[in-house]
Every structure is written in C-alpha cells, then in structure tokens.
Amino acid sequence: MFDTDAVEDLRALVALSCRILAATGCVREITGHVSVRVPGTDRILVRCRPPQDPGVRFTITDDIHLVGLDATNADLPDGYALPGEWPIHTELYRQRPDVGSVVHGHPEASLKCGILGLPMEPVIGAYDPGAMELAVRGVPTYPRAVLISDRKLGGEVADTMDTADACLLRGHGVVAVGTDLQQATVRAIKLETLAELTLSLHSVPGARPQKLSEEDIAEVSGFVNSRNAAKTYAHWTWDYYRHTLGDAADVTRRG
C-alpha cells in the first residue's frame, strides 16, 4: 500500500526537477524527461507528454503519472503519452536496484563532447567536487544516435552505463541517475558543467589539460563522501536551483 501523501510529494518533485533542468539548459523545448522510483517498489512516477505539450519548462504535477515498468500509453488518462524513450528508464530500473531516479536530457556542451569524442577527465577538484566525482567514476559514451525506443536499446544504454552515474549518448544527449531525484537532477547539471569546462579547455590551441593527481582526487573525494556529504551537497544544490526559479517553482500551474 502506497503512502498517498509521499507519492504526491514525489510527483511535485518530478515536476520541479523538469523545471530546474529546463532553466539550466539540460532539457530543451519539448524534449527530455525525468522519473523517480517510489521507494521499496517497482512503481515509477514519470513526466508524461500531455495532449498539447507546452514544453518541459512548463511541466505541472498533472503531467506526472504513476506507472509500472511494463506500462503502455493505454495505462494513461486523458490523452497523455509515456516518453518515447521510456525504455531508458525501465531498463535502468530493472538492471540497477541502486537507481532511484533517472534523468534524460539534451544539453549542448555534453552533446558536443560526445560528438567530438572529448574525454571527461578529472581536471578540477575543490572547484566543483560533484563534477569531479563524475569524471573520476567515469562517463561512458553510448555510440548510437537513435531514439531509445525499445527494451533492447534501453538495455544497451544500461549496459554501457554499467555502474556509472552518467552517460553520454553520442549525437543525442545524456542520461544521469541517482539514489534519489535530487541527486540525479544535480548530476545532470554537473555533467553539463564538466562538459562546458572540457570544451573550453580543448578550444585553447596547443592546450594539454592536466589531470588531477591521485592524492588530490583522494583528498577531495574523501571530503565529499564523508558523513554522507555527497548526498547533502546534492540536496543543497537542488535547493539553490529551486530558489532561483522564484515563482516558476509553483508546479501547480503552467505559467
């Protein structure tokens, strides 16, 4: 039996994540989607496409629907449709019990890094520990630019990610995951931060970006991972972006 209030709280968070990701350029126009697993279940709250989609930036709680992993559009009300790339979400949830939330977006810098084959390396430390951690853990690239529209392709993306926190989809976009919605959302933002820095560094003629020493990586990682600091950092960063939305943080209305 679900805690109805908890599910409604999660529904609002998914809508808010969509607005934060749009405001930071991690999702574009009507493309991109977010989901969260209801803790302890295989039920998923996911941003679905309304009959007339005004764009991810204008997501409201009514756009977030509770479904199972085998859901189809027939399970949704009022002309709503699941994301065309719903299998990105389902196959990650099936393969990785550690994943509590999935974000898929189309940010520009990450897209360019994937196309150019630029490596996401740990070249920054205390400047942005969240971005550093992504690079340290590795950001693999799924080599195809197709829509991830069936379970086979979704499984390939999940296999490519393996245990990573984020993945580039070459010529397409990104996937980021987390133990909860806030962490997955912030990881998508930090992946774009890392991509922007990578592009900038490689645009300097003759530049040879220096990777961090193992000692510095260990010291920064040790701080981030102490006392559950990584999750706290993600939640505080989420709160920053929530506050920057101002009135747009009201996910009960479109405008």
From TrEMBL:
Q: What is this protein called?
A: Ribulose-5-phosphate 4-epimerase/fuculose-1-phosphate aldolase
What residue stretches are annotated with the Class II aldolase/adducin N-terminal domain? 12-199
Entry's Gene3D superfamilies?
Class II aldolase/adducin N-terminal domain
Q: Using the record for this protein, list the coiled-coil segments as residue ranges, or answer none.
A: none
Please report a single Pfam family linked to this protein: Aldolase_II
UniProt keyword list: Lyase, Metal-binding
Q: Which InterPro entries match?
A: Aldolase_class_II_sugar_metab, Aldolase_II/adducin_N, Aldolase_II/adducin_N_sf
- Indicate whether Lyase appears among the record's keywords: yes
Q: Does the keyword Lyase apply?
A: yes
